[in-house]
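Thread amino acids onto this structure.
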């Protein structure tokens, strides 16, 4: 997130920042290179925001750079350090500022301590005491809270496929899934639930039906098999739903049938650690095929072999799919 009045970094800004990071952490850095980097950083707020994003990714995935590079990287302008300090302060702001039941139940820290979690690229099957079965997709966090009157699942992040069991209690306890924007109640069913990047929750029903109720004043909707829905805080929007008896990811596959390359990369990003992006000039290319999610490097190699694209990695944890350079351009560069 950028400050008020500050433009978000573009794709090109981020790639330039990544290239500079690769130069500065590559070993001996000349004073001329340091000055060029500083001049680029001083161009404007977009460059500083892009640099912050690269640093944030590097902190998570790369660890400490070599000592010389770390000295250079820490020579950030005071405004950049100040912005990062302010953002850290916001994360630990008094609870009264961010008070409310939704935050207490679905704040990011809940995912960190959830009973059932998967890492990026990991999937996990969970069998519950009532016979219900869960399949957690990549980067998912979920809690199970069964009581005498309710079988309650709390999805904090990620995606889960749920097959509801027949509750042995009498009367049977409802099976519900609580998410930040509302509640889903299983009506004898198999369905998937997934958080979207914007905070909404999408779901698809494969068997039975699901009652979807927003946390705000919107009306609940019963979604039948073969249909889907987008749950927002104040409403439920019906969607066409996924084809088939199970989602493709449960079979370990990412299936594209004329999908835009940009959308394909956005989906693949969920299963790969580090930064992964698609250059705007190739984002509208169409892709067809079934790809095994267990090996994202193999998928990227396949894209490079079948499309006019190349995969560039200035660092192992920073990957971009961009237009393939023409032989003439490559010869000119040499």
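Threaded sequence (334 positions):
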């Amino acid at each position: 997130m950028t400050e008020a009045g500050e433009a978000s970094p573009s794709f090109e800004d981020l790639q330039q920042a990544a290239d500079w990071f690769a130069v500065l952490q590559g070993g001996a850095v000349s004073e001329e290179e340091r000055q060029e980097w500083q001049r680029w950083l001083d161009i404007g707020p977009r460059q500083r925001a892009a640099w912050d994003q690269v640093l944030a990714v590097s902190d998570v995935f790369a660890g400490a750079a070599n000592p010389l590079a770390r000295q250079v990287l820490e020579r950030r302008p005071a405004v950049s350090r100040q912005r990062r300090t302010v953002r850290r302060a916001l994360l630990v702001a008094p609870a009264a500022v961010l008070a409310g039941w939704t935050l207490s139940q679905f704040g990011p820290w809940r995912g960190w301590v959830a009973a059932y979690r998967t890492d990026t690229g990991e999937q996990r099957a969970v069998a519950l005491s009532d016979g219900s079965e869960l399949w957690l997709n990549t980067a998912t966090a979920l809690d199970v809270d069964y009581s005498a009157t309710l079988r309650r699942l709390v999805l904090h992040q990620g995606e889960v496929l749920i097959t509801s069991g027949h509750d042995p209690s009498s009367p049977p306890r409802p099976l519900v899934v609580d998410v930040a924007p509302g509640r889903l109640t299983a009506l004898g069913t198999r369905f998937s639930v997934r958080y979207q990047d914007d905070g909404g929750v999408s779901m698809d029903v494969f068997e039975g039906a699901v009652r979807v109720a927003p946390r705000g004043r919107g009306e609940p909707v019963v979604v039948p098999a073969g249909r889907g829905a987008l749950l927002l805080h104040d409403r439920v929007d019906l969607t066409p739903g996924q084809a088939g008896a199970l989602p493709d990811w449960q079979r370990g596959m990412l299936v594209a049938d004329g999908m835009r390359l940009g959308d394909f990369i956005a989906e693949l990003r969920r299963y790969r650690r580090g930064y992964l992006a698609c250059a705007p000039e190739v984002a509208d290319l169409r892709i067809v095929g079934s790809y095994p999610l267990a090996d994202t490097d193999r998928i990227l190699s396949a894209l490079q072999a079948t499309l006019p694209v190349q995969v560039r990695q200035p660092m192992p944890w920073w990957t971009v799919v961009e237009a393939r350079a023409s032989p003439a351009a490559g010869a000119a560069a040499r």
